[in-house]
Amino acid sequence: MSSTPDNFEPRIVAFLCNWCSYTGADLAGISRMNYPANVRAIRLMCSGSVKPFFIMSALHKGADGVLIGGCHIGDCHYQTGNHLTKKRIPITRELLGALGIDPRRVRLEWISAAEGQEFAEVIHEFVKELKALGPNPLAGGDHAH
Question: Rounded to an integer, what distance in angstroms lies between the CA atom of residue 33 and that of residue 25?
Fold first, then answer.
């Protein structure tokens, strides 16, 4: 665990599937559930469309963490998109580790449209974990934005 300034606020890019996770995030917002504002959500039609390049690019451009949110296994609107994600993300995390980037900076969660509270809890947990990890070394200390 690294020492970080008390005011460090991690930046999270969240790739969220349109049908479940994005709708769950929206439910958390309209229900006024309390969760940190550290997240920039990117709505995609399916978590299966999240390519490893997107994750690496977000980290390279200064995100401290990347969240991929998809439909629960068996509930994908595109049948097998989340099965692809389930295979792809662990491989991506392994590659990041080999490159010297802590794989805990990438998190995969299955969040349904009705799980606004779950979304809020995931964000709280991820922010806490990223604060313990400290700033992304690829960000070059640029957290002024």
Answer: 10
d(CA 13, CA 41): 6
Average pLDDT (27-39) is 88
Strand, helix or coil for residue 22: helix
pLDDT tens across 67-107, in order?
Answer: 999 999 999 999 999 999 999 999 999 999 999 999 999 99
Residues 44/70, Cβ–Cβ less than 8 Å: no
Burial readout 53-85 (b: 16 or more C-beta within 10 A, e: otherwise): ebbbebbeebbbbbbbbbbeeeebebeebbbbb
**CB–CB of 14/70 below 8 Å?**
no
Give the architecture-level CATH label for domain 12-137. 3-Layer(aba) Sandwich (3.40)
The amino acid occupying position 7 is: N
Cα torsion 110, 111, 113, 115: sign: positive
Instruction: Indicate the pLDDT class of residue 145, thresholds 50, 70 and 90.
Output: very low
Q: 65 pLDDT exceeds 50?
A: yes
Q: Cα–Cα distance between 61 and 17 in angstroms, integer? A: 22
Domain residues of the chain, as ranges?
Answer: 12-137
Task: State residue 36 phi and psi, 5-degree precision.
Answer: -60, 150
